[in-house]
Amino acid sequence: MAFRNASVMEAGNITKFSEKECRLVVAGHTGSGKSAVVNTILGAKICTEGFGAGSVTEQAVLASRPRFGKEIHVVDTPGVFDSRPEMPEAKVRHELARAALLLAPGPHAILLTIAVGQRFSDEEKAVVHKLRVFFGEDSIRHTIVVFTKGDELVRNGVTIEEYLKSAPADLNSLINDVSYRYVVFNNKEPTIKGRDACAKSALDLVEKMARHNRTKHYSSDLFCHAEKQMVACDRETERPFRPKQQGGSSNSLDSLSTVPDDHLIVEISSILESEPSLVEETKVKEERTTAAKDHSALRELMGRLVRHVSRRKVANGNNNSIVESLMSSPFMLGLVPLLQANGDVKNNNN
Ligand SMILES: Nc1nc2c(ncn2[C@@H]2O[C@H](COP(=O)(O)OP(=O)(O)OP(=O)(O)O)[C@@H](O)[C@H]2O)c(=O)[nH]1
Ligand SMILES: [Mg+2]
Questions:
Q1: Name one GO molecular function term (predicted).
Q2: Which of 35, 83, 91, 151 maximizes ligand 1 atoms within 8 Å of its Cβ, making it the mutation to test the pocket?
Q3: pLDDT one-digit tens code per residue, 16-61
Q4: Which residues pair with 109 in a beta bridge?
Q5: What is the rounded CA–CA span in Å between residue 209 and residue 190?
Q6: Which residue of 22, 128, 222, 246 pairs with 260 in a disulfide if CB–CB is 3.0 to 4.6 A?
Q7: Is the dihedral of CA 192, 197, 202, 208 positive or negative?
């Protein structure tokens, strides 16, 4: 569990993360195309997309796939940030706590979906406000707006810049707040190439943002708490910290604060007790990361070996026998299946 322990953060501190891993959360208004964005980013139909007025996604879920040389983890959220959520307050809290656990120790980016053509009304403004309350005020520096239904722009012969020019001041002010970090997605793009281009544009922006922020991922007290709880749970001997339920407001999202809400803390504890599979689910993430780290160490080792062999080759008057004997050695032959599993060497049997 070394990796998990190493990634526990104190509030305000950002620790390193594997360059091979990227955690994202997709949030936005019900029906704004959140699940479709998850599918486009992961290049597979993993989350159920819906048609109609009601919410389709009912639970915060984590979906992962290797993409563009990284292990991408995306949390799809139900409409918990709506100003009038269809689900009861207790369920909203439960889903927010689940999202915090799935994203611990914090997301590299928050993707806020806004459907093109949808009026940027008080509803949408409420989503932005609730996101800031839940993730923390500083989260705006880690937010990227994903305009979905980009095909609407094409159909109307309008560019996104022209669309924004005629958009309400509140939408433009949001775009300003996120330092003009936005991308346009057409999740209905018929070609894989087209959908992959959307995914790549978002992931490139995540990297650019991380470079600009000089941080690896976003954190807040809530994520620190979720992470510590998971570590404690993982150690098995320690029981998750269970804070006393305190009085006060019943609405867990009514003040702008990054200090984890007591209601959410209680919820996090109870989820970890009732859903131990959630820890297992995130362990997969950790194991993959560790495997990716081991793999890059292996590649480094191989690089050194090849350089060594090349030098010996020159020293021995370009005699190929050293290379040949090394390449056919049991050591090298043992490496091949490992590299095949990681996609570095083509498997001729496929
Ligand atoms: N034309 C078009 N339709 C899209 C696009 N993205 C999503 N949709 C459609 O919009 C509808 C809603 O998409 P979802 O991904 O289910 O939206 P959601 O935000 O996950 O919805 P909830 O889970 O109910 O909150 C579905 O019918 C999608 O197929 C897009 O880029 N273009
Ligand atoms: Mg959905």
A1: GTP binding
A2: 35
A3: 444 678 999 999 998 999 999 999 999 999 999 987 667 888 888 9
A4: 24
A5: 29
A6: 222
A7: positive
- Reference 11, options 161, 227, 214, 174; nearest CA is 227
| Ligand 1 contacts CB of residue 123 (under 6 A) | no
> How many CB atoms neighbour CB 112 within 10 A?
28
- Contact between 47 and 39 under an 8 Å Cβ cutoff? The reply is yes
Residue of the CA atom closest to atom 23 of ligand 1: 57
- Quickly tell me which residue has 């709506």 as its tokens: 82
Q: Find residue 7's DSSP bridge partners.
A: none
Residues 228-239 pLDDT 10s: 877 777 665 444
Question: Which ligand 1 atom is the nearest neighbour of the CA of 56?
Answer: 24
Closest CA to 103 of 281, 348, 237: 281
Q: Which two tokens stand for residue 159?
A: 């560019």
Residue 185 CA, closest ligand 1 atom number? 31
Please report the pLDDT score of residue 245 as a whole number: 34
Query: How far apart are the CA of 35 and the centre of ligand 2, in A?
Result: 4
Q: Is the separation of the CB atoms in 109 and 17 below 8 Å?
A: no
Q: Cα 283–289–290 angle (5° rounding)?
A: 90
Whether the CB-CB separation of 33 and 316 falls below 8 Å is answered with no
CB of 74 closer than 8 Å to CB of 25: yes
Nearest atom of ligand 1 to the alpha carbon of 28: 19
* Interacting residues of 204 by C-beta distance below 8 A, sequence separation 6+: none
Question: Would the pTM of this model clear 0.90, i.e. be above it?
Answer: no
